[in-house]
């Protein structure tokens, strides 16, 4: 007889493409439907990758999800995100060109 598997449920955030799932990426924010962390997107973006380059490297992720991940970072509103993303206050979202906000 098979044992029941524990089903992790996604904890929604105020961002439509960002969730937290207990047991996935340490419960840190991820892009919904993936194991791709917001922190990883932030690191790529801060290193100079464009949104188009991030999408090319992760073709299963839509541009809206990448922009949502960038906007989720510190400086958007709540302070607990700094710990989640390992970012100081101010965040990547504050460094977006005005056309990308």
Short overview:
With 101 residues, this protein is α+β, with helices and mostly antiparallel strands. The chain has a single domain (10-93), classed as Arc Repressor Mutant, subunit A, CATH 1.10.10.10. It has helices at residues 38-46, 51-57, 63-72, 80-85; strands spanning 10-12, 18-21, 30-31.
Structural account:
Strand 1 (10-12) and strand 2 form a beta hairpin. This protein has helices at residues 38-46, 51-57, 63-72, 80-85, and strands at residues 10-12, 18-21, 30-31. Strands 1-2-3 form a three-stranded antiparallel beta sheet. With 101 residues, the chain is an alpha+beta fold. Helix 1 (38-46) packs across helix 3 (63-72). It has a single domain, classed as Winged helix-like DNA-binding domain superfamily/Winged helix DNA-binding domain (Arc Repressor Mutant, subunit A, Orthogonal Bundle). Mean pLDDT is 76; it is low at 76-101.
